[in-house]
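Mods, move this if it's the wrong board.
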Amino acid sequence: MALGLSRRVKEIAPSPTLAIDAKTKELIAKGEDIVNLSVGEPDFPTPKGASDAAIAAIEAGFTKYTAPAGTVELRQAIAAKLQAENGLTYSADEIIVSSGAKHSLYNAFIAVVDEGDEVILQAPYWVSYPEMIRLAGGVPVIIQTDESTGFKMTPDMLAAAITAKTKAVLLNSPSNPTGAVYHPHELEALAEVIAKHAIYIISDEIYEKMVYGPEHVSIASFSQTLKDRTILVNGFSKAFSMTGWRVGYIAADKQLVKAMTSFQSQTTSNAASISQKAAEAALDHFEPSNIEMFRKRRDYVIRRIQNMPSIHCEVPEGAFYVFPNISELFGKSYQGKVIDSSDTFAAVALEQANISIVPGSGFGAPNNFRISYATSQQNLEKAMDRLENFLRECR
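Not the wrong board. C-alpha cells:
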C-alpha cells in the first residue's frame, strides 16, 4: 500500500488571502517598498484594557485549561453584549468560545452538515467558506451576485437555490470581500423564504460594528423560530483589532452548542485562557472613533478610484474593503504583459507597481479585486497614486 495524503487534504485549496499576505511580507522583509492592501486586519492597537487584562491573567497564573466552551465569565459577558446590542437573549450554555471566528465557523459546519448536504452561499464569498463546507462533507451551492444586485442575493434567487438537500443558508453581513450590508427589510425578505423550509441559518456577523449608514441587524432577531435555527458567529478580531488573540464565538440553540462543545473538546479544547480574559475586558473597551476613521478611509479610496480609468466600484456600506471591477481592463497590456484576469492584474500590480491586492477569483468574482483599507492614510495615498499610474499606463 502506497503512503499518501488524505483525499480531503489533497482537494483543499490554500487561502489566497493568506498566501498573498505571506508573499507580500516576504518581499517587504527583503527590502521591497510594497504597500500591503491584501490583509483584513485592523491597523489600530488592541484596546489597552484588553491587553492589561491579559497581563493580569498571566501574573495571576490564569494559564491553565478552561472549560472547552470557554469560561463562564466570558460567555456571560458575550450573552450580555448580545442582549444589549442585538436584542437577543442567550444563556451562557448557548454560547461556545473558540480559537477565532474561523474556528467557530468550522465547528458550525461540522455540527450540522452531513455528507452530500447542500449549503447555500452567495458569491462573492469569503475565500474559506466553500473549503470549510467541503471539509465537512457538504456541497457549496453558489448564488452569483454582482454590482447589478448590490452584491446581495434576492429572495427569488434564494428560493430558486433551495432543494431537498439544502441543510443551511450562509449569510455574511457586512460582507467580506464586498462590504455589502443587508438592510433590515432585505433580511426580512430572505427570512420569509427561509421560514418556509427546515434549514439552518449560519450568520457570520464578524464585521457587525463596521457599518457606515445602515443599521446592522441580526436575522436571529426577527422571530423566535428564526433564532432557534440561527447559528450566530462573531468574534473579537475585527472590531477590537485582536486578530492574533484568536477568539471567536457562536450563539445558538443549546443542543447545537452542546454538540459543538463535544467536537471542540476532542480537537482544540478551549481557546487560550489568557486570550479569553482579554476578550472579556475588550467588550467594555470598544472605540467608536475607529469606525469613523474607517469611513474616512473608505471615502478617500472610493473618491480616488472614481477618477481612474478602466475601473469602477460600488460604494460599500460596511467592513473595511472595496471591491472594484476591472473587466474593462481585460485585453489591455502593461509594459507588454496582457491583463487577461484579476489574477494577472494582481500579480503585475505586485511585481511592477509594488501594490499588494487580492484577485477576485478566490472570492468567486473573477472580474474584481479586493482592497483592504485597514491601513494608514499615508499607505492608502501611496497605494492610490501607484494604482492610478499603473492603470493609466495600461494600453
